[in-house]
Amino acid sequence: MFLFSFCYYKVIHDRKSDIEIEGKKDVTIDDKTLEVRKRRRLAFLDLLIEVQKQDPSFTDEGIQEEVDTFMFEGHDTVAASLTMALYLIGRHPKVQTKIQEELERVFGDDRKRFVTSDDLQELQYLSCVMKESQRLLTPVPFVGRDLAEDTRIGGIDVPKGTNIFISLIMLHRDPKQFPEPEKFDPDRFLPANSEARHNFAYLPFSAGHRNCIGQKFAVMEQKVVLATVLRKFKITSLQKLDELKLASELVLRPVDGVQVKFTRRP
């Protein structure tokens, strides 16, 4: 851990030196909203350094913690989501067939072409599968919040400043919003079936001002990986759902891994 911290601080220090050499950047930051007003995009680390110039209380340690959040939380959650999605697809051959039919409509018989942004927009059923996977096996099973004001929850008065935790994995099993909640059914997320659903019934990336800042990138990343894998391989899961040993930590993960067989498609 010490080595990682040393490397991060060195990267931050070196980048600050580079910025000084490059000259003053055309960036101003609104003190109230911290909205960046600029004529060109900044790299994430550069943006944090600019914020520090405006607010010296934002230390190098604070910069490191922000980078840690993006690097490690983004890595673990996406890996968990892909693992569970591949497992569930491998458990449901009819779903897998529908995905591959959609992939063939978009890509034809070309299994080597890179996935583009336009392709991702066309993969609507794959999006439904991903959403249903994240509903049933939610990558981040709970979120915590500090109450900013006195609140009444379920008939109980909860005072300001209380730490509360919301179980997303239980929220996603509300039978009023998701009939037969233990069933894997991607059709739940077809527009005709989901438009009347409560806006906060499904929150794999949380919600509000502190929702996942990287959710759009995470969704795009997962779709690219799944589309690439499923164009080339048939997936067969070798375990039943109740045979998986799942640990509900910061990220939902299988304790002993997941047994999945990959067979190259003809």
From TrEMBL:
Which cellular components does GO assign to this protein?
A: endoplasmic reticulum membrane
Under the heading InterPro entries, the entry gives:
Cyt_P450 (IPR001128), Cyt_P450_CS (IPR017972), Cyt_P450_E_grp-I (IPR002401), Cyt_P450_sf (IPR036396), Cytochrome_P450_Monoox (IPR050196)
Q: Where in the cell is it found?
A: Endoplasmic reticulum membrane
Report if keyword Membrane is assigned.
Answer: yes
- Sorted UniProt keywords: Endoplasmic reticulum, Heme, Iron, Membrane, Metal-binding, Monooxygenase, Oxidoreductase
Record: residues binding heme: C212
Q: Does the keyword DNA-binding apply?
A: no
What Gene Ontology molecular-function terms does this entry list?
heme binding; iron ion binding; monooxygenase activity; oxidoreductase activity, acting on paired donors, with incorporation or reduction of molecular oxygen
Needed cofactors, names only, are: heme
Q: Name one Pfam family in it.
A: p450
Give the family per the record: Belongs to the cytochrome P450 family.
**Could you identify this protein by its name?**
Cytochrome P450 4c3
